[in-house]
Design brief:
The chain has a three-stranded antiparallel β-sheet. The protein has a two-stranded antiparallel ribbon with strand order 2-3. It is built from 17 helices and five strands. By secondary structure, the chain is mainly alpha-helical. 73% of the residues lie in helices and 5% in strands.
Length: 432
């Protein structure tokens, strides 16, 4: 295995086209990190760091922007508006038959138009999110009060940064290796690891830095063991699938016989990816934002409502249970939107394929739907556990620096596996 790895590595560096693709991805990542260091002037760094700790959604957005939000850079929104626009477009396929036909039936041209609509939707979403974020930061005293012209200028800069980052991700997809958007999110997550590790040693270190307090050593060792086990479980869950056997009917044309091949239809355990977690976080961010805004008013009813929302957010067990339920429900919801057993059964029937022991048509659709429901039950439970795992680890250990699982872990594992597959595919093309 190690020899095979060395041979593939040698082929990567000797092949001019593959080497240029990898170098292009590296250049895109370097540009992404440089953009995240260009700050907006007049920022109170200490207050901003405390706000990122209190608002979990802002901390989540900071990870996606590669630390750009923690410095209020021009790409402070990261790929958030583009991801939100893509999710909204996918949800719109349920309500609009034209969009559904464009995405599923019009082929590559229809999908390009669908993606273009998502890009156009990114602009107003970036403007709305930028305005809300600047207003929140201004009321928290992190940035100085802005005039109308200054606010408009900052919003235009934020929109430009979001669209620039989206464009860089699409260029990396076209001229690089793998999905550029996912690689940028992966880079943002990995870029935050050194600061988290450093913060752990600063908080629990002794005078003999980088050694830590003896009482924390068992917890740190247990964290490493559990982290390895969870990464292994995430890899298996990401790659796991339930095969449905399929047989193509034999057809005789002239003197030749076609068909009669047995294959399978793969049903992935985690078909929704990290989308349910993003949905759940979007739902849970409203109590945090509203509680912060209500606390600045003088209305007694709003102040009371804000205190109730703040109590809900600060109650770790109630928050974790709600988070678990939302991720579980949204996994079923998103899977039902993106996977249609009726379309799969119709396509199988048109191509002369059938599931052994199951009648074609509606019976096949019901059979596939039953299997998908069972598989999604396992995937939804696993995804919900992974999502709430950081909250549980913080509650059990009391160490805020130890946070394993969640969206970041799923994205890292998924991107690494996808990147390895894409590089292997490029190598295989050149070998043959």
């Amino acid at each position: 295995m190690f020899q095979t790895f060395l041979e593939k590595t040698e082929l990567v560096f000797h092949d001019r086209i593959l080497r240029s693709r990898i170098l292009f991805v590296g250049f895109g990542l370097l540009l992404f990190r440089l953009l995240s260091t260009i700050p907006v002037p007049g920022v109170q760094a200490d207050k901003l760091r405390s706000l990122l700790v209190d608002f979990q959604f802002l901390g989540f957005l900071n990870v996606f922007s590669g630390g750009g939000l923690s410095q209020l850079s021009i790409i402070m929104l990261g790929l958030g508006p583009y991801i939100t626009g893509s999710i909204i477009m996918q949800l719109m396929t349920v309500m609009s038959p034209k969009l559904k036909a464009m995405y599923h039936e019009e082929g590559e041209i229809g999908r390009k138009r669908f993606v273009q609509y998502g890009r156009l939707l990114t602009v107003p979403l970036a403007a709305l999110q930028g305005y809300a974020l600047l207003t929140l930061l201004e009321k928290q005293g992190i940035i100085a009060p802005l005039t109308f012209f200054a606010l408009l200028t900052n919003i235009m800069v934020i929109i430009g940064g979001a669209m620039l980052l989206t464009w860089i991700g699409e260029l990396m997809t076209e001229f690089g290796v793998g999905n550029g958007t996912s690689i940028l999110i992966f880079a943002g997550i990995v870029a935050s690891l050194p600061s988290q590790i450093t913060q752990f040693f600063i908080t629990y270190g002794t005078s003999y830095f980088p050694f830590i307090e003896p009482s924390v050593i068992p917890t740190a060792i247990g964290f490493v063991v559990v982290a390895v086990a969870i990464v292994t479980a995430v890899v298996y869950a990401t790659e796991a699938e339930r095969p449905i056997p399929i047989t193509y009917a034999k057809q005789v044309r002239g003197n030749r016989q076609y068909g009669g091949i047995s294959t399978y239809l793969p049903i992935r355990i985690n078909q929704a990816g990290v989308i349910p977690i993003i949905f759940a976080l979007s739902m849970l961010v409203f109590p945090q934002v509203l509680a912060s805004l209500f606390s600045l008013t003088k209305n007694a009813a709003l102040l009371k409502a804000g205190k109730g929302m703040l109590w809900f957010v600060q109650n770790p067990w109630l928050y974790s249970i709600t988070y678990f339920i939302l991720v579980f429900v949204f996994t079923f919801f998103y899977t039902a939107i993106t996977f249609e057993p009726e379309s799969v059964a119709t396509n199988l029937q048109k191509n002369g394929a059938f599931i052994p022991g199951v009648r074609p048509g509606q019976t096949t659709a019901e059979h596939i739907e039953k299997i998908v429901a069972r598989v999604t039950l396992v995937g939804a439970t696993f995804l919900a556990i992974i999502a709430v795992l950081p909250l549980l680890m913080r509650s059990l250990t009391g160490i805020q620096s130890l946070a394993i699982g969640g969206t970041a872990l799923l994205i890292v594992v998924s991107v690494v596996l996808d990147l390895i597959k894409k590089i292997d595919a490029q190598i295989s093309m050149r070998e043959y």
